[in-house]
Design brief:
CATH class: Alpha Beta
Structural class: alpha+beta
Number of strands: 4
CATH superfamily: Homing endonucleases
Strand order of the largest sheet: 1-2-4-3
Distance between the termini: 18 Å
Strand content: 15-25%
Shape: globular
Helix content: 25-40%
Radius of gyration: 17 Å
CATH topology: Endonuclease I-creI
CATH architecture: Roll
Number of domains: 1
Number of helices: 5
Order of helices and strands: HEEHEEHHH
Amino acid sequence: MDDAWLAGFFDADGSFSFSFSLNSDGIPVKIRTKACLELRTNYHRGVVSLSSYLPILTLIADAFSVKTVNHYTRSSTGLSIYRVSILSLLSKSQLISYFDRFPLFSSKFLNYRDWVSVVDMVADRNMDLNVRGQRLTSIKSDFNTTRTTFNWNHLESFYHL
């Protein structure tokens, strides 16, 4: 990937998430991080040559060493969806390298930055487990739909064309 096209695509249809549980001692267990790109299966604007998103999502999956583009039906709407899930350490590393070169610019950048912090925490085997639990809880309280803190300083380095 040598341009920012995917960053814009991800800004619109991508997401970052993480989950964890705290044991009785407040130590985080089962920490999972994931980035996803989800699109309806078929282009809905009537352009026949672009009837399926599967070919483009397969290329994106391949670029990030993801083996499968998943298909599911959203139960709330009945909409048929394709999903590329970035789960492996290699895939996450490739995605982070891509976004280091071609950053996101919507508020999704803020979630991305926090998601990277969590990915890094998981990799840091020397981090105190109580500190990790506190940081994860703090990040989760201001992440995605619970975000109340917004800082737009990242826009100061917007692409210079």
